[in-house]
Amino acid sequence: MYINIYNSIHKLINGLDFKMINTRKFGIEIEFVNANRETLAEKLVANGIPCFYEGYNHTTRGHWKIVTDATVRGGYELVSPPLQGEAGLLEVKKVLSIMHECKRNPDMDMVNMSCGLHVHLDASDLDGTDIYWIVKRYKDNETAIDGIMPTSRRGDARWCRSISSSWKSNLLKELNTIEANARQQFRRECKVNVAYAYARHKTIEFRQHSGTTDYNKIANWIEFLQYFVEQSVKIKQSIKIKHDYKPRKNSVMFASIREQVALLGGKLFYKGAWKIINENGETIRIPDNSGEHQNCGYAPLAKLYENNSYKGNLNKEKFLEFMRNYFPQEMSNNDDADESLFAGIPHYVEEFFNMRTTQLRRA
Fold this sequence. Notes:
By secondary structure, the chain is α+β, with helices and mostly antiparallel strands. The chain folds into two domains: 2-237 and 338-362, Creatine Kinase, Chain A, domain 2, CATH 3.30.590; 255-332, no CATH class. The protein has helices at residues 2-14, 37-46, 85-101, 128-140, 142-146, 163-166, 178-182, 195-201, 215-237, 255-263, 298-302, 316-326, 328-332, 347-362; strands at 26-32, 51-53, 64-68, 76-79, 117-122, 192-193, 203-206, 267-270, 274-277, 285-287, 293-295. Strands 2-3-4-1-5-7-6 form a seven-stranded mixed beta sheet. A two-stranded antiparallel ribbon has the order 8-9. Strands 10-11 form a two-stranded antiparallel ribbon. A hairpin with a 7-residue loop joins strand 3 (64-68) and strand 4. The longest helix has 23 residues, at 215-237. The model is unreliable at 1-18 (pLDDT under 50).
């Protein structure tokens, strides 16, 4: 009974064209088997989709390409050019339809356990703090995301390792650039790949999804990731600044101020003297007793603590006033933001994955 209901909903949704509002560019890598590479490339070209077999490479093209992949048993990888919006999804749908026509054996699937689906999202407009929140939210919701994937793509799977086993724990160490954040990642084959994807393509790569040539699954996953990223950026913009913030590295001088300034896109550091740079890259200068504006220095920062030191409890009134004075735009947005898995996700995408979770749990 349950499977029949799921299949009916699957067919209903699969027949619709997704109305994607999000315009962040994306690209996909479809690992597949049970098809001849030359036949597939020729068929796509004949149907108005430029595609070429190129052998193994990581070069971004303006056309679809078929490449070898040593991780795929008996198959290849079909890689898209950068795509965008509804037109991009419709192109994916057309490509998948043509792929199904190219099956060697019509009774066999086009994926096996070695296959995966990788989605790249454009990150050229993101900064290091955006990346922090994207990776943090994925890590915080990793168990729930595992639940919408088959068992082969859960936990610390070989080709999509968990965040905790792929990223260093001190993710807040350097937030000023994406490159600095990427240094916290020490393997490419993880669920969220920034280090290698950004260096090559200025993208974030999401590697967790299982291999599939099902348009419904692919379109829903792309949309989920698009809105997941946008919600993560909103959280950065509305981050709650707290006087009772608990720093990750309490032993570091002014840790509770330093980490919260970083979350707002600024930087507190020592270079001959204590200095603060705001989110616009401008050095904050603070008036001294004579009215002259100077670099921040030790004393003004120490006064923000109840014990007039470099650690301990922040004085609520003094700290919040300081932040309002020198980070006014960010503090005006200082409201709680929803970090839950489906925050900001379209309802039809959430419904699909809720159904998918139930299906996998009962399988």
